[in-house]
Specification:
heterodimer, A: 110 residues, mainly beta, 6-stranded mixed β-sheet, 3-stranded antiparallel β-sheet, 9 strands, 44% strand, globular, B: 120 residues, 4-stranded antiparallel β-sheet, 0% helix, 49% strand
């Protein structure tokens, strides 16, 4: 299984909205609504932000939202804040009953 | 409150076998449909999913590393052990263990990770 494809970097100004894409195949993202997103600040463990494509865990800001179309999932951050600057990774369940992560996206708040 | 903590050697030599232990609290691996997974991250690089073990001892491995990985659990000790054989400098990474909630396909809580360096 190959890593899911994400843009290397995305940037935006405070208050703006940005979207991070996550492209897989019909063996993972395209077939299963089991896409999750993780935020990772430098030197820290990843934190779950979105699960099952569009559900937010308790405590995660509603500025974070997820969606999916075909083989591509997306994470949108609205009202961008300085604290959102971090690396973001998508992940999906696969047809082999395994998991796969994305290549990661560095979000920069200008 | 669920917590997980990774432990093991910080330095291993090439060709050696790495053994990492994930010690957790706040849940039991005898609970139906719960799992614990291992994920690694080379310095400056992306996360890589390695393995997952479920409550019923079902085990899943990364296809690319399957021949080198073994995951086991000790329910009485609340521990999950990952072994990686034939370590190579390319295996230098921070290794994380994480909790997979019941009936789900994501990791909701992670340990802080442990950095393992492979060098002679």
């Amino acid at each position: 299984q190959s890593a899911l494809t994400q843009p290397a970097s995305v940037s935006g100004s405070p208050g703006q909205s940005i979207t991070i894409s996550c492209t897989g195949t019909s063996s993972d993202v395209g077939t299963y609504n089991y896409v999750s997103w993780y935020q990772q600040h430098p030197g820290k463990a990843p934190k779950l932000m979105i699960y099952d494509v569009s559900y937010r865990p308790s405590g995660v800001s509603n500025r974070f939202s997820g969606s999916k179309s075909g083989n591509t999932a997306s994470l949108t951050i609205s009202g961008l804040q300085a604290e959102d600057e971090a690396d973001y990774y998508c992940s999906s369940y696969t047809s082999s009953s395994t998991r796969v992560f994305g290549t990661g996206t560095k979000v920069t708040v200008l | 409150q669920i917590t997980l903590k990774e432990s093991g050697p910080t330095l291993v030599k090439p060709t050696q076998t790495l053994t990492l232990t994930c010690t957790f609290s706040g849940f039991s691996l005898s609970t139906s449909r719960v799992g614990v997974g291992w994920i690694r991250q080379p310095p400056g690089k992306a996360l890589e999913w390695l393995a997952l073990i479920y409550w019923d001892d079902d085990k899943r491995y990364s296809p690319s590393l399957k021949s080198r990985l073994t995951i086991t659990k000790d329910t009485s000790k609340n521990q999950v052990v990952l072994t990686v054989t034939n370590m190579d400098p390319g295996d230098t990474a921070t290794y994380y263990c994480a909790h997979n909630p019941r009936n789900s396909w994501y990791f909701d809580l992670w340990g802080r990770g442990t950095l393992v360096t492979v060098s002679s």
